[in-house]
Design brief:
Strand order of the largest sheet: 6-7-8-3-9-10-12-11
Number of helices: 11
Order of helices and strands: EEEHEEHEHHHHHEHEHEEHHEE
Structural class: alpha/beta
Strand content: 15-25%
Number of domains: 1
Shape: globular
Length: about 325
């Protein structure tokens, strides 16, 4: 598959079986492309399928249907050494740095494992690479941070260790799963600036998962909006903020401090999205103030509303 994109999801579907109930479809026929050195923000409320999609793209989950492509090669069902090689190129920064770090191991241990297993570094080479990565994420003097345990670090320092661990394999693609949501407001800008700097220095591509449109606007080149396991809108960041084309995107903007669209939340109810396999129609239909009869029966296709701007809503026909 020749492609101008580094990472592509083609009708990506993740199914979670349930007993005596329809299966849950956490990601439903998702089409998403990320170019080299590009940041795409995946935005939506909790339970919308963002993290599941991100985990599938780095192959921490195996898709139930659809395909994942990396640099023109399909990686949907690779295993063993092929998957290990893929993880040199694709890594994930998890939301909670305290939960994702083993409390019984030092910073040096956390970074040494990917350096050994993914890059096959040993001895002096591994020690040099470890110091280089710690310096890159701003944890200096490195000799001090090497021997610290997670509980001895602040929240911001733990997140820097999590970022360093993701960098250790030498990836070109990183899924950053709400990397600033567990931090104080004063630290969030520092981590976003660090991610931006790392992208410039290492030529990284990001899938930046967040529920915060403000940080998505700051970091991302494009923003994709997800609800109920489905992508409902995608556009260049500034275009989506200034001219949202889907009612759910307008709802998110209405709840975003400082947004020009701030106001009463335009929804008819506040139920969680329905992820069941037998769901019909648009996932946002039960909450949408502009719902039409066909919205509850058939999922609208992605329609181009402007250059590079698509939305899955009948209002745009």
């Amino acid at each position: 598959m020749a492609s101008k994109f580094l990472v592509s999801a083609d009708h990506l579907t993740i199914r979670f079986p349930r007993t005596n109930a329809p299966d849950l479809i956490a990601s439903r026929a998702v089409n998403l492309d990320i170019a080299a050195k590009e940041t795409v923000a995946l935005v939506g409320e909790s339970g919308s399928g963002k993290t599941t999609t991100g985990r599938a793209l780095v192959r921490l989950l195996t898709p139930s249907a659809g395909n994942v492509w990396f640099d023109g090669k399909e990686v949907t069902h690779i295993r063993g050494q092929a998957l290990m090689r893929y993880h040199r190129n694709a890594q994930m920064i998890f939301q909670d740095p305290f939960a994702s770090l083993n409390p019984f191991h030092t910073v040096a241990h956390h970074l040494s494992r990917p350096l050994t297993r993914l890059r096959h570094l040993k001895g002096h080479e591994r020690e040099e690479a470890l110091d280089e990565i710690l310096t890159l994420v701003g944890l200096t003097p490195t000799a001090i941070y090497r021997e610290k345990y997670p509980h001895e670090l602040s929240g911001g320092q733990r997140q820097r260790v999590a970022i360093a661990r993701a960098l250790a394999g030498g990836p070109s693609f990183i899924v950053a799963d709400e990397p600033v949501s567990m931090l104080d407001v004063s630290l969030r800008a520092e981590i976003l600036t660090l991610l931006e700097s790392l992208q410039e220095r290492r030529g990284l591509s990001y899938l930046y998962i967040t529920h915060d449109l403000a940080s998505a606007r700051y970091l991302a080149h494009r923003i994709a909006v997800m609800y109920g396991g489905s992508l409902v809108e995608i556009a260049p960041a500034e275009d989506l903020i200034q001219a949202p084309a889907h009612p759910y995107t307008r709802l998110l903007l209405a709840a975003t401090p400082g947004s020009a669209h701030t106001g009463p939340l335009p929804e008819t109810m506040q139920s969680a999205p329905d992820l069941s396999e037998d769901r019909q129609g648009c996932p946002f239909a039960p909450r949408c103030p502009a719902v039409m009869d066909r919205c509850t029966k058939t999922m609208p296709a992605m329609i181009t509303v402007a250059d590079g701007h698509q939305a899955a809503c009948y209002l745009n026909e």
